[in-house]
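Field: COMPLEX_INPUT
Field: COMPONENT_COUNT = three
Field: RESIDUE_TOTAL = 947
Field: MODE = joint
Values follow.
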Amino acid sequence: MTSQPHFSFDGSQIPFRPGQSVGAALTAAGVRSWRSTRRGGRPRGLFCGIGVCFDCLVVVDGRPNERACLRLAEPGMEVSTQEGTGHGDLEV
Amino acid sequence: MTSKSERIFDVLVVGAGPAGLAAATSAARAGARTAIVDAGVVPGGQYWRHPAPNERGVSAAEVAHLHHDLATYRRLVAGLAAAAQFSQHHVWTVTRDRDGFVVHVVDRTGGGERAAELRSRRLILAPGAYDRQIPFPGWDLPGVMTAGGVQALLKGHGVVAGQRVLVAGTGPFLLPVAAGLAESGASVVGVHEAGSPLAWLRELGAVIRNVGKLGEGASYARVLARRRIPVHTRSVVVSADGTDAVERVTIMRLDHRGRVVPGSERTMAVDVLAVGWGFTPQLELPLALGCATRVDVDGSLVCEVDDEQRSSVEGVFVAGEACGVGGAALATVEGEIAGTVAAGAASVAPRLRRSRAALRRFAQAMHRSHPVPAGWVDRLSDDTTVCRCEEVPFGALRSMQQDLDAHDGRSAKMLTRAGMGYCQARTCGYAVGCILGQEASRTSGFAERPVSSPLTLGALATSSPAEHDSPAS
Amino acid sequence: MPDVVVVGAGIVGAACAYYAAREGLTVTVLERGTVAGGTTSRGEGNILVSDKEPGPELNLALASRTRWLELAAEFGPDPFELEEKGGLVVATSDPGAAALTRFAEGQRAAGVETVAVSADQLHDHEPNLAPDLPGGVLYPQDMQVQPVLAAVSLLAAARSLGATVVRGEEVVAAERGPDGRVTAVRTRTGSYPTNAIVNAAGTWGGQVGERLGAPIPVLPRRGFILVTEPLPRVVRHKVYSADYVENVASDDAGLETSTVVEGTQGGTVLIGASRERVGFDDTMSVAVLRRLASLAVRLFPFLADVRLMRTYRGFRPYCPDHLPVIGPDPRIPGVFHACGHEGAGIGLAPATGRLISQMLANGQPDIDPSAFAPSRFAQVTA
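Field: COMPLEX_OUTPUT
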């Protein structure tokens, strides 16, 4: 089997086709949400798909608030669910 | 040291959709030193969205069947060879200087975030539009997507949004979205158009003069008919339901006055609901420059331009959806007009003028046939999310009006936080305006976005007002 | 006929309307735009004593702070997000630290609570501050409020006491009787009979004064504010660099920036402050934004990776001597001014409102208003 590239998402390996965004690959893999909202803790994933709505924010390689619909998937990327602001580590 | 004047473009085009591509190609062909700046990885905007260049992944060929006028697309892209191309560059603001304009960009190539500046004597703004949205109970569940988002997944990434999809809203765009999904293997449960099937008859004149575009619509209808995908008119989505993602959608019929028919609820199981209610032009850059605006037939705030695509600001041209939502053919014509005039042409070819006029009339006809169905505000409950970013429910806006006697957009932002989140009211602006009973306006506080693309304070702090180095091609 | 017409429904106009109504006066507020649509919604909601040197403005600020606490208790619970978060003024150099210490001593003598903070103690108060700062002063009395909510609430309370608020009315002149007293306010649409007019038009107080026949020297001073993406609590107090104090008192027409950083209840961090005299030019200035970003990152290095989400700007109303104009105009009996509060309008609004209401009702002002009198300007002669 030809080696298909993968990135990790919350520890699972997600296959993708080169050229796809993180959001597209997650959708193809059946993952529909990767963020919980700040107030209600509600799940969000893709909505507008073109970088306008900022619903699809996700953590990529430790950096939060990346639009999953715009960010191209790369092999070995570490993607994780964003909780709230994504900057919880800065809280004092 | 390279003198600054050598790094000033004659014409800089913002946006590489149909209008921007046509503008940049025309300007370059006319001999202007041209640049084109676009947030996408490859040119095309939404209409001609293509996969990012890659090795053995999603190919342009596999999405070709979803496209129209690819010959035009290829010709225009080839024409960009004479221009400096800046892809994955998001414009966050535009200012003026002595020599013309300064375009402030965030370079996101390779996932980075660097601020830089590009200078040009003249600007052509072709920022396009995005799906207009109205809230309804459950619209913020994962799996509810814009029609444009579903289309972008297909065209740009070769991904089908879900297995059982219902397409709803209003406007001719619903048909190609449904057809594309169906041809890509999704089960399309149905297309639910809120408009009336007889609305076309009132616009016959404009429609007849644009028979080619009717043919386009007919071909989608054939695809759907062949696959036995029902297309319902006077049908509107009233809610989406599910626990952590959409599982069911409820549809109701509208009577001839556009009100829901009691008892007409039908619920269907889906995993994706694609909704579209027309388009909202993205106006923050023209507004930042002070361009005059007006409200178009579809209720959108658009840029005022003359027959040569000149805005009210000297040196600033606007083309495409930002002058009035009208589709790719019109955008291409306007782009060509803007490009040639910005490059110094004395006049515009009569065939372009005629084309523009006919396509404009068709666009107006389409808008009048596909209004956003009235009465949607009445279908909101107090806990329906209106501002998705800040999770502001309808109840907060309602009580602001009732208890605090505040009815304007700025107050809504300050008192409820609607429109104050990451998307800066792109998604909720239209809806909040309707809820407040206001027509779209430049002073509503929802169309202006002084920071049109977010950038880190570090990137902003370390950006120096120097020339951008190497354009990516 | 109303006893008084208040021109302007910003925070100061709202406070004037509320306190006047509380005195039993019938009040009509005229606003040409939207409530709090001017400078009130363009600042940070500051209620500060930390940035004021001993003198009349500091006295007014101390009294006004008490009024804010009273209002919050009266309208409560938590009617306008009033937070006694305190202010931390941080020096960025050793000479700056020495100057700050001296300044704070003077303020303490004038009744301001101050707490000296050494270099090692800075991070107990603000863990995210840069590591190499020489020290600062904590001002526990500094507070934060949501200014639009406050203005709206004050007007709602005024209305419940019988006041009327009319939007979309622009004042064009004052009508006067044979004895020179005000008899009415004329607007673009009509006329409002009254014997008293309060010019609470903020940055447009100069223009309104002119139209009333009582010009006062109020000029605009532009300021930008940066707003970050939403964050958890990362900054506990209002944090300023010590040079903020010097900026306010300066007359420089050029750009002045100093650092002001604070969190908000919505999660965003606000970053200021810039001051420019550019008339009412509200076009974007990337140079100012760049400078503010750079100063903020210097004070809080973590901000380098935090995104700018939006920005807004406004025009502070500014008098040549940096004091507000509060009191009766000697040229036109019946005209009172209550504007020119520069960047301190929110904080000073309740005390201003109370002073005006006392003047209107012929009561005893509980603060000496002489330093704010319109007659102090050479051009304002009876």
